[in-house]
């Protein structure tokens, strides 16, 4: 399952990334494999989404969130 497929309140554990270039940026922001990530909010038209990861909130576009595979 991908992070972009979760609904508000759902959570998962980061397994891996499907885009190497994007993965470097995401890991710099605290999205590391093994981290728990939870969807907190979704914008009215579905993009971007706000997620909790590593103790803070992070806003991601759906395209970015779709590169994060969850366990």
Automatic annotation (TrEMBL):
GO molecular function: transition metal ion binding
Ferrous iron transporter FeoA-like domain ranges (all copies): 1-70
Name of the protein in its database record: Ferrous iron transport protein A
Keyword terms: Iron
Origin species: Pedobacter cryophilus
Pfam families, A to Z: FeoA
Top-rank taxon, per record: Bacteria
């Amino acid at each position: 399952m991908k992070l972009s497929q979760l609904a508000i309140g759902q959570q998962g554990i980061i397994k891996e990334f499907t885009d190497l270039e994007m993965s470097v940026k995401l890991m710099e922001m605290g999205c590391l494999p093994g981290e728990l990530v939870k969807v907190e909010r979704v914008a009215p038209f579905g993009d971007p989404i706000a997620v909790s990861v590593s103790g803070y909130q992070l806003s991601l576009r759906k395209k970015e969130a779709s590169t994060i595979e969850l366990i």
